[in-house]
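#structure-requests
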Amino acid sequence: MTSLNIQDMEQKNLKPAGVFRYFEEICQVPRPSKKEGKIIAYLQDFGRKHGLETVTDEAGNILMKKPATPGMENRKTVALQAHMDMVCEKNNDVQHDFLTDPIETVVEGEWMKAKGTTLGADNGIGIAAALAVLTDETVAHGPLECLFTVDEETGLTGAFALKDGFLHSDILLNLDSEDEGELFIGCAGGVDSVGEFTYGEVAVPEGCFFAKVQVKGLKGGHSGGDIHLGRANANKLLARFLNRVRKQHAMYLCEIDGGNLRNAIAREAHAVIAFPEADKHAIRAELNVFAAEVEGEYAVSDPDIQFILESEEPRKQAMEPEVARRVLMAIQALPHGVVAMSQDIPGLVETSTNLASVKMKPGNVIRIETSQRSSTTSAKEDIADTVRTVFELAGAVVSHSEGYPGWKPNTHSEILEIATESYRRLFHTEAKVKAIHAGLECGLFLDKYPTLDMLSFGPTLQGVHSPDERMNIPSVERFWMHLVDILRNIPVKD
């Protein structure tokens, strides 16, 4: 494994050089969701440096414009679109501040990844490809717009805030897909559902042993793109074990925490519990039995799962037992995973839900965040209502986000025909035409610009939204070749 910087990248002859150069520059710029100030400044400076008309709207979205190359002035206008923010996840043993520290990239064979953190290729590689198009004078294209949106990962804020008249394109190429050779023409809509429990505190009795229970080593992943893989959810497993303990022992819940982001499957979770000293060995034995059961259940999807019980510093207070009981039962009862498969597109998840995070908040509040997705609006509403029902039965106060629309597939799209013919000609094989269960901004773009002809594609990424995120290097070159050829073959404007 070798560490990579811009000079190393050039020496390793990674291709296309322009795309990888800009990607490495982007990796130096912190860009957490809702804190995109530094990447906004980087892009504004890029526009000024290259003499491009660059506009920033009130939300922080950036639009760069480049005139057509000679002879292509009569082509339809194309928007290349990518989002600025990245999911910021790291392994617990990694020291990294996503607000200040650059992403350290490494190369392992044909793959690029980061040192213990998310790589940010979702969607930094899309930005890099767009910037490369803007600066590569060998790329032939018609009138071009490049739209960079903020806060895609935690609310689609930038896409929601996009105003009529900001964009003037006929075609939009979304550069935010994760399987090279696959062309996406539809995506799921989604909504977030949150339950909050307010609790009082009780004194922990004398003679109790304090222990920290941890669930770790799970693969996690994207709650849309990876939900069909049946991976374990750390929040669910932790609650499942604690409910066993609670039913057999006088258990006090002092602390609970699991997962981080609404669109990531929870990889790690922990709780601090107290119980009679005399029960210590029995509970450890119960954890060993439980671990063996779960390891068998998830031997394929999560072979590195770990359950750890270790002593913890004493706490004076714990959550009142009745509320702890309702919280743990709610977590165990909340649905997680695939709810229904599409009846129209084989292999496509239609509806799913993700039990994303469990957090203790100021004011003695336990906040449980979940997200629901579906390509069918009524099914999305139904699973959100199911989650609400579980929360309300457990006594939580429930709220829902505004949600976002899906993107209905158009199999007769003109840009789809151009892209499929281009791929066949370049690579002598057929591209796969798909819809995606993950949310894309395209649904919101179509809501605001109903005549847009859209397509989403990109290089191959794996493990996105987790520290296992990695990008296949050869696929970036194929993605670039495909993008350039599509731009060369954009049709004449009517």
